[in-house]
């Protein structure tokens, strides 16, 4: 059981480590390329807050 679980956890950690942090410039650019119909509610809210109405002081 442990032999199967460990490689699975490593793969999941590697995949999740590749995604940009929500709200970052990279994330905004990635989401901008994605069809708006494919956005989740959380993604739309974070995009609005972080990418459209971002304060210049936050940078």
How many beta-strand runs? 0
Low-pLDDT residue spans: none
Q: Helicity range of the residues?
A: 55-70%
Q: Measured on Cα atoms, how large is the radius of gyration?
A: 16 Å
Question: How would you describe this structure to a colleague?
Answer:
The chain is mainly alpha-helical and about 60 residues long. It has a domain at about 20-59. It is about 60% helix and about 0% strand. The protein has three helices and no strands. The protein has helices at about 1-15, 25-35, 40-50. The protein is elongated, with a radius of gyration of 16 Å. The protein starts with a helix and ends in a 7-residue tail after the last helix. About 0% of the residues are buried. The mean pLDDT is about 85.
Question: How are the elements arranged and paired?
Answer:
Elements lengths: L1 H15 L8 H9 L7 H12 L7
Task: Characterize this entry briefly.
The protein has 59 residues and is an all-alpha fold. 61% of the residues lie in helices and 0% in strands.
Features:
single chain, 59 residues, mainly alpha, 61% helix, elongated
């Amino acid at each position: 059981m442990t032999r199967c679980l460990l490689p699975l956890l490593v793969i999941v950690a590697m995949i999740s480590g590749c995604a940009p942090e929500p709200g970052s410039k990279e994330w905004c650019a990635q989401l901008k390329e994605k069809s708006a119909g494919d956005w989740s509610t959380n993604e739309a809210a974070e995009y609005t807050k972080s990418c459209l109405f971002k304060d210049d002081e936050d940078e």
